[in-house]
Amino acid sequence: MLTREGLRRVLADAGVDVVAEAGDADGLMHAVASARPDCAIVDIRMPPTNTDEGIVAAQEIRKLHPEVGVLVLSQYVEPGFAMRLLEEHPERSGYLLKERVTDPAILVDALRRLTEGETVVDPTIVSRLLARRRVADPLDELTDREREVLAHVAEGLSNAEIGRRLFITERTVEAHVKQIFLKLEIDQAPETNRRVLAVLAFLRSSGAAG
Asked: What's 143's domain CATH number?
């Protein structure tokens, strides 16, 4: 309840309309069906068992209401739960650590990206997956710089934002992204879908490592 109230205040201060609140998965599903928000913010652990009700609800929202974005919040880094959501419904799906959303700018930016059809993954998860040893990795064809660019794509950053992070031009980022799409054989799709598919390829490869 305290987290919910805190998020409501942060969003209100940022000019975002909060159309409904819910304390459990059933209440959440009812609120989404009746209010039809642009995006739902869901705690990964909800009553009654506080295990994976949030992920299950998020999957149901994306299935029943594909126009509604879903941002799942977690206290801990749990890549497996993130993959459960992103594998089935990558567009308009996001996964962030709760500590991240105390920054209004990060929270509002994530919501904006989700409503635009993008995928948002917490950079902490990206970093942890990058650190894992990979076996028979389909990303092995990528150069170190391309892998670095892909990691930022997985965070949901635009080409311009990636360029600022890496101190390279946006045109250079675009060239790297094009090569990533070609090497991962996902070049024949609209731009947003290609970026989502690249993120999934990254997460699958990293998550399968031992």
From this structure: 1.10.10.10
